[in-house]
Each structure stands twice: as C-alpha cells, then as structure tokens.
Amino acid sequence: MMNRTIKSTIALVACSAMAFGALAACGSSSSDSSDKGKVYFLNFKPESADQWKEVAKEYTKKTGIPVKVQNAASGTYEQSLKSEISKGDEAPTLFQVNGPVGYASWKDYTADLKDTELYKQLQNKDLALKDGDKVVGVPYAMETYGLIYNKSLLKKYTELKDAKVKSAEEINSFDKLKAVADDIQARKSELGVDGAFTSAGFDSSSDWRFKTHLANIPLYYEFKADKVTKQPAKIKGTFLDGYKKIFDLYITDSTTPATQLSSKTGEDANSEFSLGKAVFYQNGTWAWTDLQKAGMKAEDLGMLPIYIGAKGEEKQGLATGSENYWCINDKTSDANKKATKDFLKWVLTSDYGKEAMSKKMGFTTPFKSFADMKSENPLTAAAVEDAQSGKTPVSWNFTMMPSDNWKNDLGSALLEYAQGTGKWDKVKSAFVDNWAKEVAQTHEDQD
C-alpha cells in the first residue's frame, strides 16, 4: 500500500527549515560504451534547464558517461514522458512524478531506490514515496509559494497618506490584503504601477498558478477541517467562497483587463513584476532564477501567504511541500540504472553538484549532504524565515488532485468566469463534481 500522505508533507515542511539547496532535473545521452551505461533525465523544471545542462556537461567531462537533459515544455510533462518512455533503451533513465497520484500512472516503470545514495541521503526517510517495502520516488526539491511582493513598491505605498497599512507585516488576512490591493489599484498612478497584481494569465505557462496552486488553498482548509490524510473519493468545496474572493481580487486589481487573460503567459507576469508594473505576483521560490535574470535584486523581494478569508488565517504561513520526486526507470538496462544512480550520487555529494543546486538553482533540498549549503535565493530565505516563525504552513494537497483533466476543466471554468462568459457555479461544479468523476475514472483505468 502506498504510504505518502499529508503526514509526510508536514515532514517536508519541517525539513525545509533545516537545509538549503536546489534542484531540478538531469539527463542522459547515447553512450559510446554500452557496458558503462548512459543517463537521460527528462526534466520537469524549465526554469533550471540551463543549469542542469551545465551539470550534465561537467559530469560527462569527468567520467565519460553521456548525460542527456531534455526539458518538457511547460504543462506537457506527462505527455512528453508518455512519448519518451516508449523508446526502449533510448527512454529516460531518470524521470519524475508529482506524488501518489502521479506514481499510480508510472508504477510499472519505477525501480526500487532503497539501496541508492539518493535515498540514503534523505534527512527524513518518511519523505520518500513508497509502495509497500519499495522506495519508488525520492523528493529532490522542497519548494514554497505565496504572494511574492516588491519590497520597494510596497514600502512606497505604505508611505502614502492614508495608506491602509504601514508595513508588509500588517498584511495577515484576506481583508487586509484586499484593502491594500484595492487602494494600490485606486492609486496606481501615484505609485507608477499598472496594477496591484500581475496578470492572471491562462496560457499553459501560467494557468497552473490558479487551477493547481491557488486551488490548493481551499483544499488545504477543507482537508484540515475534515482530517483528510489521503485522496478522498469526494470533496465538498467548503472553502470555495474564499477561492472566489482571492481570484476576484487577482482579476479586478490587475495590470491587465480580464478579457485579455486567455493569451497572457507566465513570462508576461514575470516581466510585469520585474519591471515594477505590479506589487504582488503569485509564484514560488523557483521564480527567483527568472526574476534575477530580469534584473531584480534579492533585497527587493519578499513573500506573503495567500489568504482566502479562512478563520484563523492570521497564523497561516506560506505553502511549502514537494511535487518533485525522482524515479529511476526500471525498464532500462542495468548499466543505465547504475549510471543514473552514480550520477545522482555525484550530484548530491560533489562540491560542483551541491554548488549548482544550492547557488545556481536556488532550491531547498531534503538531503544530509546539503547541511552546510546556504541558498542565495531570497525567496528561499523568506520561506525558511516563515517556517521558523511559528506560523502554520499550508501543505501541498494538489498532489492528491485526481487528474490533469480535473485541473484543465477547472482552469477553463475559471477563465470563462474571469472573462464574463461563465458563471461561478461552473467553477464549483468543475471543482466538486468533477473531482468525484475523475477519481472514479482514474481508479477504473487502473483496475
């Protein structure tokens, strides 16, 4: 029986305050010596693609083992994996799943990682994805998301006459956030911004922020209230009013008219924020690489929790967890499996690998070998400060979302609502009714 649930997600949160590091994914290529094997990693995280290619090149230079890194386009990982995994000896040797639901689709391809350095380096073995006695996945990146804010712009706002707050620390509830966002929107010309929030784009490079990450917040509160610890067959949508409140705020206090959201991209939102056109930007620790490339300075970035008006949210922290589990392809050759295990060992224990992950990629890792590494990612620093503040972290429950179809239907309903062509009732139906349908369908497909 698979035993990765909310309980171990909480362990992930605790771990994040202890270790700094970074991750993404790495890969393989063709080998000129078949007995030595090769590594092919199908990378899920495009924001760290360049860094992983550098790591791959360095490892090949040191060992002669070919390492290929291929990056799936945003929102197409499952589709890419299905296509690539069928290529026999040329299939990925290293891939990832997002948790128990993702594992269910790929369980026939996952090797046991129990005796690998990858698993041995985990600070807390409960974090691993397991199926009975088999270790099928190891989390490589622990990440945090919330409302990234521009410290300089928010400070400029707080210094305006009759500002709703005098510091970022005062924003500790939805009501406070709404008061500030509404006021920023009304006084945007004074601040020199186009809106309080960046565009809520529904291009595939951006819609996951709302149909997955934002949707996690009402799920978190419902699962917490109902003491849910594994994927339920049905949900009630108890906190969907709060989901509506925050989504309404995103689209009314925005840089962009709602009619234009269908074509707005993740890059658009990143650009708006980095150019100082918006004060708030829903995203996570992984966004630092792109923001840094766009010229933002570490000292200008902070992160607030996403509030939806839930009772007691003043003590709510940021959303911290992982949906990034490394798996080794059990159907590749023994030589390729060994090459992949050796590559991961080098990545986790060599100075070059640790430096690349912690400094260049800016993520937090759950591995013992990273105890002495400090990330230069200001969003990671904000996440650790939040974890140590005594606030209650929001667990990542979207790993229990039943399918990509569920997310996509929810995204479509949200966009129709935003553009005025659909009602909120359709969002509710996509959230609640489709959950039961997709869970039933997924289990039927697996039988």
UniProtKB/TrEMBL annotation:
| Top-level taxon of the source organism | Bacteria
Q: Where is the signal peptide?
A: 1-24
Tell me which InterPro entries the record gives.
Answer: Bact_solute-bd_prot1, SBP
- Does this UniProt record's set of keywords contain Glycoprotein? no
- Which keywords appear in this protein's UniProt record, sorted alphabetically? Signal, Sugar transport, Transport
Asked whether the keyword Transport is assigned, the reply is yes
Designated name of the protein = MalE-type ABC sugar transport system periplasmic component
Species whose genome carries this gene? Gardnerella vaginalis 55152
